[in-house]
Amino acid sequence: MGKAWGFGRHGGPEVQEFFDRPDPVPGRGEVLIRVDVAGVNPLDHLLRSGPVDGLDGGRPFPRVLGMEAAGTVLALGEDVNGLEVGDAVFGFALTGGGTYAETTVLSAPHTARIPEGLSATVAATLPVAGTTAVDVLDQLGLPAGATVLVNGVGGGVGLAVARLAVGRGLRVIGTGSTAKREHAEAVGARFVDYTAEDVAAAARALVPDGFDGIVDLAGGSSLRTVAPLARDPRNVIAVGDMSVPDLGGRFVERRVDRENLERSARLALDGLLAPVITAVHPLSDAPAALAAVENGHASGKIVISVA
């Protein structure tokens, strides 16, 4: 039996609980891993709050929280290629196994080996934040010297986008609350504090001719405030707000396969995709880790150390 943190039914934080479960049995196309580190993401509490098509695997309650992890392969299911027992790996729990647990199953096609020199802590941040950063910037395809606005720069994805964009030679402006300034500026972004100034006016003052691209991580009214700052509305890419086509923009095209994981790992090794990890919690403190993300107070990336 192993310890896990999850939820007994859909709802708010009150449905969360610790429980013991046997090691999962890897199914076709899955690998069983001993979890070393799990990443914490907004999607985790969204899955707890209600069903999300295609991401719960049809598993019974209680379900384990978490979507990304790094660890060591303990067993292979059928039809798993390119991975072996004993491999240090990182990837997605796309079939509902969860990752806030001592052991779990990852989807093998969405799992990659951790390259030598990369820590499990960093690797655990790459499936969501790392690959999203690669995807949005590839989708924009901006040349060096272009301007990009990262709306909601202070979280794990926003800082990853900003750091990678700076590494590509882009001029980066990021928006966020006062507490996010230090981390945003540390990765090379100019910062606009939405709590202290008019975001649209301040951003336009920095880039009077309009932005070559906008990456939106805030959604809602914030997206609608910054979208008109784009020179071409098609270069407004939203990560969470599915209504962006109404503004002429596009939703991010996600690639969560092994190839993109391996690419993100290489960028991390080269220092071009350096995650800003602001807190490492033990599994026993998983409630606080998720609460920080759910409350919107987290800067950078929060992870849970299980090993």
Distance between the termini: 15 Å
| Range of strand content | 25-35%
Identify low-pLDDT runs: none
Q: Structural class per helix/strand content? A: alpha/beta
The overall average pLDDT, rounded, is: 95
Helix and strand string, N-terminal first? EEEHEEEEEHHEHEHEHEHEEHEHE
Radius of gyration over C-alpha positions, nearest whole angstrom: 19 Å
Broad shape:
globular
Strand runs, count: 16
| Count of discrete alpha- or pi-helical segments spanning 4 or more residues | 9
Biggest β-sheet, characterized? 7 strands, mixed
Query: What is the helical fraction, as a range of percent?
Result: 25-40%
Describe the structure.
- With 307 residues, the protein is of the alpha/beta class.
- It is built from 9 helices and 16 strands.
- Helix 3 packs across helix 4 and helix 3 (126-140) crosses helix 8.
- The longest helix has 15 residues, at 126-140.
- It is globular and about 60 Å long.
Give a brief rundown of this model.
By secondary structure, this protein is of the alpha/beta class.
What are the key terms here?
307 residues; alpha/beta; seven-stranded mixed sheet; six-stranded parallel sheet; 16 strands; 26% strand
List the helices and strands and how they pair.
Layout: E1 2-7, E2 16-21, E3 30-39, H1 42-49, E4 63-64, E5 68-76, E6 88-92, E7 103-107, E8 111-113, H2 120-123, H3 126-140, E9 147-151, H4 156-167, E10 171-176, H5 181-186, E11 190-193, H6 199-206, E12 213-216, H7 220-226, E13 236-238, E14 250-251, H8 258-269, E15 277-282, H9 286-294, E16 301-305
Parallel strand pairs: 9-10, 9-12, 10-11, 12-13, 13-14, 15-16
Antiparallel strand pairs: 1-2, 1-4, 3-5, 3-7, 3-16, 5-6, 6-8
